[in-house]
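FW: tagging you since you asked about this chain on Friday. Here's the raw sequence from the shared folder, copied in full. Didn't touch anything.
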Amino acid sequence: MKLSLSIFFTLLLMLPATVRSRTLTDDIPLGDSLRVDSGNTEPKKKKTSWIKRVIDSFSDYDENYIEPQHYLFTGMLQATYSYDYYTLRDNDNDQSVSLAPDGVIKLGPYFGWKWLFAGYTFTLGASSFNKTKTEFDLSFYTSRFGIDLYYRRTGSDYKLRNVRLGDLNTKALQNVPFNGVRAGVTGLDLYYIFNYRHFSYPAAFSQSTCQKISCGSWMAGVGYTKNTLSLDYEKLQSLIEEKLGPQTVEIDSGLKFKNASYFDINISGGYAYNKVFARNFLLCVSGLLALSYKQSSGRTAGALEENKFSFRKFSPNLIGRFAVVYNNTRWYAGFSAIVCSTNYLDARYTTNNTFGNMNLYVGYNFGLRKRYKTKK
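HL: got it, structure written out here
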């Protein structure tokens, strides 16, 4: 069992409630600044700093639709399942190889105070012994916008999931371990929620608010992704011959590359909807389709200069989210999933990388805020 430290930040977890204006009929606590000029009976309020105004704007929502967090602290137990799936395809000869490691399950306790959320996770299963696997995911949600950061470096525990070699029967290759591939992905997605006063992403994915009335919102965003991939095609050919026989077909030149590096910059748009289907229960479905400018460079088999390749293309990416949550402000529990799919399309070959996380959690909030103590 491997112990790793994961730190997640969720800004709306404990940020101040919606900003409200104060009038002369409000109670003015001791220490508030209120000046009256001798020639003017109009009171002047102390100016709020621009930093506080920006922070308060992160939680600017309509409380008729969204219930704010009642507590300062939270404790949570969460299990996370991570997955990663690569498909490499030669477009000329109907050949493709799909690879994926066994899914990784992590379990651990978390503790939150205001916007800080941290905890320990324990990696379970055989993959926990793979010392070369690195993974870091960070999601940051406010009422107005969200940020997803991800950094993954795979180990050597890939398996062949699906191999297509024309009309050849390749069932003998399914789920066969293959340590001839290394892959990595680094990315950032930033998106803006237009109907932020009535629709709450944090209610679905950080449990820091509660959606009272069903509502949706259009979203727009920008992002950056970089993928690296190296393939030992000679090992792959040897494995194919070992499982299917020495007279089998040879993999085509479109799959004979040593390494490749891809990066893309994208502009995305999509829609998300929160369905309040019962008291304290929420269902959220969200999708973003991104148009990405992609640039790639790498090297195929051989050491000659012509074995280098590069391309610049536009192609689509997809980001999907799903959540089911129960939250009565004191207790919360639920399931969520985030799926990212990046595609690189070329006349010669195509690659696809689909990765993400699924989370199952239960948590408890405590330390009632002052504004809710006065209502008791």
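FW: The chain has four helices and 20 strands.
HL: agreed, and Residues 1-40, 303-307 have pLDDT under 50 and may be disordered.
FW: great, closing this out.
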